[in-house]
Design goal:
The chain is α+β, with helices and mostly antiparallel strands. The protein is built from 4 helices and 5 strands, in the order H-E-E-E-E-H-H-E-H. It has one domain: Butyryl-CoA Dehydrogenase, subunit A, domain 3 (Up-down Bundle), CATH 1.20.140. It has a 5-stranded antiparallel sheet with strand order 4-3-2-1-5. A hairpin with a 4-residue loop joins strand 1 and strand 2. It is elongated and about 75 Å long. Pfam families: DUF4293.
Length: about 150
């Protein structure tokens, strides 16, 4: 589920802003920050760090699933994934700030589904780490009984 949420970030808009005076809309996706109808001389801003962090987080989540025999490795991968997800959210904030400066500063932009999915992934990652720790505690208590 976590990997799907992070991969969905690649295909959904993260942030957008509409300026009614100029009738321009700026849209932030995982790969670019650009105007919907670009005017002459406005090049899109590359936002590849968002895409790279999202793909890396999804890959770590899948790898974490296959480490079920070694719960300590799962916990380490969960910590790495936490940092990658926080980095994705931070990059989204950074590039939305860049987009705020591209249009009328007085009108705020709106975050879209692509921004909230990493937050869901962060919650799922924290829950997974909690349950992995509970499993490890249970196994250690069973070892004491033998």
């Amino acid at each position: 589920m976590l990997a799907l949420a992070m991969l969905s970030v690649l295909f959904l808009p993260i942030w957008s802003k509409f300026d009614p005076s100029s009738k321009q809309t700026v849209v932030l996706t995982a790969t670019q920050l650009a105007f919907e109808q670009p005017a002459a001389g406005t090049a899109p801003v590359a936002t590849w760090p968002i895409a790279v962090l999202a793909v890396a987080s999804a890959a770590v989540a899948v790898l974490e699933i296959f480490q079920f025999r070694n719960r300590f490795n799962q916990l380490k991968l969960g910590a790495v994934n936490f940092l990658l997800i926080v980095g994705t959210i931070g990059a989204g904030f950074y590039y939305s700030g860049v987009g705020e400066r591209m249009l009328n500063i007085k009108i705020p932009g709106e975050f879209a589904a692509g921004f909230y999915l990493p937050t869901l992934a962060l919650l799922l990652n924290l829950l997974a780490n909690r349950f992995i720790r509970n499993d490890e505690r249970l196994v250690r208590s069973q070892d004491r009984l033998r």
